Amino acid sequence: MKLLNWTRRFSRRGFLKGSAATAAVVAATGGGALAQEFRQPEPGSLKPEEVRTLVVFTRDLFPHDRLDDSYYERAVKALEDESAKDGNTRQTLEFGVGWLNEAAKRMESASFAEIKEEPKRIAVIERLRFDQSAPSGFWDKVYNTTIVSLYNQPEVWPKFGYEGPSSPKGGYLHRGFDDINWL
Question: Which of 43, 58, 66, 166 makes an SS bond possible with 90, Cβ 3.0 to 4.6 Å?
Fold first, then answer.
């Protein structure tokens, strides 16, 4: 009997009227009125010293003497853009860079980017890769993003002898696919 009284207090007409009013508010504000209290603050961009550490780190991960730092900076830009949009990526990069710097200071009394000798930086990277106390996800995030963003730059391709995609040029069949003069 109590259930019947509850259903009489709320009519179908009242429900539809309330729903229409809610829909009008959502439409007028673009959903902003409902989402305002749930909105997360925008994550900040990476600090310049974090970017410098990531450039040195990616250069050590993918060492090419024929590439200058500008190519690595463009590769790290993809990480910067992602961290500006995603707080989890920002936190992963922040913790990873902090871990690199702390490990470098324990080994060499300098931040990671300040260590001049490559073998010493490689020792820090090896600790990062295999140490259980290292931040999880940092290695994978930087490695997987950088391998795509570094080698996907058309300006880099000629430095490695890659002529670019062959499909716009008719494929490799009649363009020397079997030239192996380097062997």
Answer: 43
Q: Is residue 24, in this structure, part of any structural domain at all?
A: yes
Contact status, residue 40 vs residue 87, Cβ threshold 8 Å: yes
Task: Supply the pLDDT for residue 134.
Answer: 76
Nearest-Å Rg of the Cα atoms of the chain is 27
- Output b/e per residue, 119-131; b: 16+ Cβ within 10 A: eebebbbebbeee
8 and 68 fall within a common domain: no
Cα–Cα distances in angstroms (integers) from residue 74 to residues 79, 138, 141, 153, in the given order: 9, 19, 16, 9
Do both 26 and 61 map to the same domain? Answer: no
Average pLDDT, the chain: 80
Q: What range does the domain containing 17 cover?
A: 2-38
pLDDT tens column, 27-78: 555 544 444 443 343 446 789 999 999 999 999 999 999 999 999 999 999 9
Residue whose structure tokens are 């963003």: 149
Residues 82, 142 contacting (CB under 8 angstroms): no
Could you give the number of structural domains in the chain? Answer: 2
In a domain, 173, yes or no: no
Examine the domain organization and report whether 140 and 58 are in the same domain: yes
Burial (0-12, 13-18, 19+ Cβ within 10 Å), 79: buried
Other C-beta atoms closer than 10 Å to the C-beta of 20 total 10
